[in-house]
Design brief:
There is one protein chain. This protein is an alpha/beta fold. It is built from six helices and 15 strands. It folds into two domains: 129 residues, FAD/NAD(P)-binding domain (3-Layer(bba) Sandwich), CATH 3.50.50.60; 128 residues, no CATH class. It is 20% helix and 23% strand. The strands form four sheets. Strands 5-2-1-8-7-6 form a six-stranded mixed beta sheet, covered by helices on one side. A hairpin with a 6-residue loop joins strand 6 and strand 7.
Length: 288
């Protein structure tokens, strides 16, 4: 017998929890199904050691739960982000069921809702299903990755933790949005020879006229100039590369010019750009 709820939410990250908050406010029966044993799985397992938010803490405004800490202009590290999400879930009693992997979502007979099957064998009959698993949680390697010789170590950004985790030698970073630039910057700081394949991602100053750049974007938002996803002329615009930003060491301006001055070798984007966010350790020699 399937458990009946109005809404099944898949994923207990910030999106799933925010949806749950609104459903709770409206008194609508729902469950959140999370395959991990805790909230915020991507923040726990898919970020490098020195990762921080690229927006200041005051800009973290989950529905009904604004930042309340004592460092509003700082940038939360992963452990702080996870703690913030845990406090958020507890604040309204989010109905999360952990260790449950959704294996199928099928239309109910007659088109009246959905049947949700899970790894535990439990099933749910729901009028609505919200998939809140994120857009960039799974690596998407291309066939070209298989053509590299085995002596070249390949690593996706979600598996990178710190420079010590890479074999000795030069490092080729493919992809120059905020993730690629931050990792290239860290590797360069640690004395590694770094080659960075650049794409079309833009740069933004960390601060302007004494205010963090996030403040000025907030001003634009209040003026009503920001489009929602359904208003974009092309749905693909949702996946545009993020600009170069970092919150590390209190936040500073990160750009290709400074990376080049620091010793990072910038390479063109045509050959490897479709392998964005892949990292190759090249045995001490420049990539050919």
């Amino acid at each position: 017998m399937s458990e009946r709820v109005e809404v099944v939410v898949i994923g207990a990250g910030q999106a799933g929890l925010a949806i749950s908050y609104y459903l709770t406010q409206q008194g609508r029966t729902h469950v959140i199904l999370e395959r991990d044993t805790q909230v915020g799985s991507a923040w726990r397992h898919g970020r490098w050691d020195s990762f921080t938010l690229v927006i200041p803490n005051w800009a973290v405004r989950l529905p009904g739960f604004p930042y309340r800490g004592d460092d509003p202009d700082g940038f939360m590290e992963c452990s702080e982000i996870v703690s913030h999400l845990e406090q958020y879930a507890s604040s309204f009693g989010a109905p999360v069921r952990f260790g449950v992997t959704v294996t199928a979502v099928d239309p109910a007979p007659g088109g009246s809702g959905y049947f949700v099957s899970t790894s535990s064998g439990d099933t749910y009959a729901a009028a609505n299903v919200v998939v809140a698993t994120g857009s960039f949680q799974f690596p998407r390697p291309t066939k070209l990755a298989e053509a590299f010789p085995p002596n070249i170590s390949q690593m996706h950004s979600s598996c990178y933790r710190n420079p010590d985790g890479l074999p000795p030698g030069a490092v080729l970073v493919v992809g120059s949005a905020d993730t690629g630039c931050q990792i290239a910057d860290e590797l360069c700081e640690r004395g590694r020879q770094v080659y960075l394949c650049v794409g079309r991602s833009s740069r933004r100053p960390r601060r302007y006229r004494g205010k963090d750049v996030a403040f000025w974007f907030w001003v634009v938002t209040l003026s009503g100039s920001v489009q929602t996803a359904d208003q974009l002329p092309d749905p693909g615009a949702r996946f545009a590369a993020n600009p170069h930003l970092t919150g590390k060491n209190g936040g500073y301006t990160l750009n290709l010019h400074q990376l080049a001055r620091n010793g990072v070798v910038l390479l063109g984007s045509r050959l490897p750009s479709f392998l964005a966010a892949f990292y190759w350790q090249v045995g001490g020699t420049a990539p050919r």
